[in-house]
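Hi V.,

You were right to ask for the full record rather than a summary. Here it is.
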Amino acid sequence: MAELSTIARPYAEALFGVARADSAGLTAWAELVAEMAQAASHPEVRSAVADPQFDSAQRVELFASTLKTPLSIDARNFLALLVENGRLLLLPEIASEFLWLKNRHQGEADAEIVSAFPLADAQVAELVAGLEKKFGVKIKPVVSVDASLIGGVRVAVGDQVLDTSVRAQLDRMRDALVA
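Predicted structure:
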């Protein structure tokens, strides 16, 4: 996984530079890149763009035809670059890197909050306030429930994970006893 993000990062950074200079704005580009990533994840699209009977221009047109959003010249050029370098199928990783760059630029971060039990809105708000204080950015939470945690929460902000779940504590105790 780290290898794919290493390959995707320069493409995301280049696209981010184009998006910052574009009057359409970062949000519009983020939505377009997310749409491209979703299309690139579809098995039939992956198969079609990998078909050797198509040349590069045909692959760009084929892929562009799967999108709802009309493509600007810059977006088409980006797709052509990905096709020429055999990186079109990396769009999900590129989109992830692009979103990270956009969030960092805007002083925001996505937080994946996994709880053993459903959290009330007030609990989420309190947790988000603490995370914003700790990380110094505006947190956009995505909350889910995983009963296997037994109790507590696991929070992932970027590449940092805070795991206060009972499952993690039991795992640490087991590792200490085995060692």
